[in-house]
Amino acid sequence: MSASYYLCQSGIDHVVLERYKRFHAWKEDRWDSFCLVTPNWQCKLPDFPYRGDDPTGFMVKDEIIAYVEGFCESFNAPLREGVTVTRVEKVNGIFEVDTDQGLWSADNVIIASGGYDRPITPPFASKLDPSIPQIHSKSYRRPSDIPNGTCLVVGTGQSGVQMMEDMTIAGRDVRLAVGPAPRSPRWYRGKDATDWLHQMGYYDITIAQQPDPKTTEAKTNHYMSGRDGGHEIDLRRFALEGLQMYGSVADMDGTKIRFLPDLERNLDAADKSYVGIRTMIDDFIVREGIDAPLERPFEKVWRPDTEIKEIDAAVEGITSILWCIGFRPNYDWLQVDCLDARGRPIHTRGICDEDGIFFLGLGWLHTWGSGRFLGVAEDAAHVANTIANQLKPATKRIKSAV
Predict the structure, then answer these.
(1) CA dihedral sign, ordered 73, 79, 84, 87
(2) pLDDT for 156-212, tens place per residue?
(3) Is 176 left (phi over 0), alpha (psi -120 to 50) or beta?
(4) What CA–CA distances, in Å, run from 137 to 23, 154, 230?
(5) What is the pLDDT of residue 220?
(6) Mean pLDDT, rounded, of the chain
(7) Percent of the chain, pLDDT > 70?
(8) Does the keyword Oxidoreductase apply (predicted)?
(9) Could you give the 3-state DSSP secondary structure of residue 191?
(10) 364 within 8 A of 370, measured Cβ to Cβ
């Protein structure tokens, strides 16, 4: 929709093909208590910034939907809903965009399908006793959806820790398999840590300026929460309150679940990231001579006495598994040479070497904000301007597919 906004401004004929209803993912693929983890002021869709009365707060699901719907209604996008693209292929210099509702032709194609198509579950998940239901985070809506008994949440990215907290608040018995995801402070030295990072120019750093761009692209997002005004999540404090934690899940066989002995290492890695962000902010405050309140030094309030390597789910009363280990994109329909050996788009700021193919909405497409409300407008403007500049004035009214 951001791309469409700028294409409309440039007078470029185009169509937006949406597989479901508009904003389906926000409406149907988020759990009930979902909220932003970045402050509302970072919502900066094209010429449609957040205009509410709580810029430092965190919009909940219904407010997010109202925000994106308001953006959609702010201009007349040529949106076609309920259209599934099944093939994109270049034939005689023109792209054929085949759909379940007919064939389109296009001089340019912007792929804005994101990177969250296929939920990830490990191959060994198929060996788990079928009497233990396995749910993916994409299907989680509320604690009551989870079968009675103990739920093992696997993964500690943003979804995993927030769903674990959601069920804990509801009084459900939860256990957690802790992965290597990093964590972030929430409020530090007088304001939200993301406010400090923005002020420091961290969000303006491009992927090309990163020491190892491929490693940066593959990093998991730092976990924290915007729930109830926002707070950080320290898993060690949950352990003090009774949360049973394990290391990464390594294998499953029947009712047996095996773990790597990496619980403490993963907790330490998350804390290293947490402390690193605090240190960056501290250094910035000193360097700029900013008067900011002091904070107590970080301390580890808990550490595991032992690493549990195997459990029997039946004995432990574990009646369900909630997988929160991410997604993969699906480009099976894209028959254009623009992906690397791992199936990832090859591009520079969304522009591919293959003429006429563009990407938008991917994490680190250009900066940290590329896959978020903060940076998508800038990326969309860049892609739309590139298309406009490549077209001769007399041929701007062409058919493009977004």
Answers:
(1) negative
(2) 999 999 999 999 999 999 999 999 999 999 999 999 999 999 999 999 999 999 999
(3) beta
(4) 18, 10, 21
(5) 86
(6) 95
(7) 97
(8) yes
(9) strand
(10) yes
Alpha-carbon Rg of the chain, whole angstroms? 23
Strand pairing partners for 348? 351
Residue 147 to residues 74, 130, 153, 265, 323, Cα–Cα distance (Å): 42, 14, 13, 31, 14
Tokens 């750093």, residue located: 205
Residue 374, classified by CB atoms within 10 Å of its CB into exposed (0-12), middle (13-18) or buried (19+), is buried
Tell how far CA 251 is from the center of its chain: 26
Map tokens 């194609």 to a residue: 109
Give the model's confidence band at 394: pLDDT under 50 very low, under 70 low, under 90 confident, else very high. Answer: very low
pLDDT digits (tens, 9 = 90+) for 88-106: 999 999 999 999 999 999 9
Q: Which amino acid makes up residue 340?
A: D
Helix axes of 2-9 and 376-390: crossing angle, nearest 10 degrees: 40
Task: Write down how long the chain is.
Answer: 402
Is the CATH number of domain 2-117+329-401 3.30.460.10?
no
Residue 115 has a pLDDT of 86
d(C-alpha 22, C-alpha 2), whole Å: 13
- The answer for residues whose C-beta is within 8 angstroms of residue 55's C-beta and 6 or more apart is 39, 40, 41
Q: Which residue has the tokens 């995993």?
A: 160
Asked if 26 and 136 count as a contact pair (C-beta separation under 8 A), the reply is no
pLDDT in tens, 286-297: 999 999 999 999
As given in the structure block, the two tokens for residue 188 are 């530090």
Alpha carbon of 353 to those of 90, 92, 338, 395, 398: distances in Å? 14, 17, 7, 22, 21
Residue linked to tokens 């066989």: 253
pLDDT score of 381 more than 90: yes
Give 397's pLDDT tier (boundaries 50, 70, 90): very low
Strands 85-91 and 334-335 come out as: parallel
Q: Which residues lie closer than 8 Å to 311 by C-beta, 6 or more apart?
A: 246, 256, 257, 259, 318
74 touches 369 (CB < 8 A): no
Token look-up 């396995």 returns 134
375 vs 379: CA distance, rounded Å: 7
Residue 398 has pLDDT above 60, yes or no: no
Hey, where are the domains in the chain?
2-117+329-401, 119-323
